Model the fold of this input.
Amino acid sequence: MRQSKKPPRHSVDISEEAGIRYLHFGSDWIQGAMRIARPWSLELGYTREMMAGLLLRQSAQWPRHALLIGLGAGSLAKFIYRYLPDCRITVVEINPQVEFVARQYFKLPDDPQRLDVITGCGADYMLAGGRQFDYILTDGFDAEASAGALDTLPFYQACRSRLSDDGLLGINLLGRNKGFQGSVERICAAFDGRLAVFPSCDSGNTIAFATGGKPVAVSLEEMRERAVKLKKDSRLDLLPTISRLQLSYPLPEGMLRI
Done:
């Protein structure tokens, strides 16, 4: 794919503390993390939350094709690669240095049959059209924590067009700052209001899920059952996410519907 935008000029830095390796983009802002003793685990709370889509779809084979916009330390890509072996993963990352660092220092697998990393602008990739995906996860920010073109109505509309019928879009909205409501309104417009904004996690990040195809209709009991199995299979514990959702989100008849 042609890369239409120049890679960012900021540095890509690494730090380590208390057994955790961190990724930074030219500042103290954490762009990714890996517990060295458990490289496949999701260390940061918001990355765990972004996998909550696994609680919303019933099929054990879902997703078969995942698209990640933004690589970072490769945490989401590694988790999917390890624990969803039937899933093929495409990652779009604008900065080739990030891919190099993820492979050298964060144990990103080298398996082009299952994990394809494309160097390019995520917005351009989505707007160019093409294949559809079951799970699209967007987590792309620059050194100033700006999502830029990844937080626009045309981008979210393109995301909807690239979802399969049972597809889900998961978005890291970073936090409930002054631009948060505008982001939610743009996603709502692109998806006709079919959006669930989860309560902020411990890091302050807010994750939202949207769909334009097959409706999501899942009970709290079903989500808990899936969360227990997921924890057993992968050590990913989403039970606290369900509890916060129950306390903070309107769930008529105990059902989450999107």
Summary: Residues 147 and 155 are 11 Å apart (CA to CA). Residues 220-234 form the longest helix (15 residues). Helices lie at 45-50, 75-83, 96-105, 122-127, 153-161, 180-190, 220-234, 239-248.
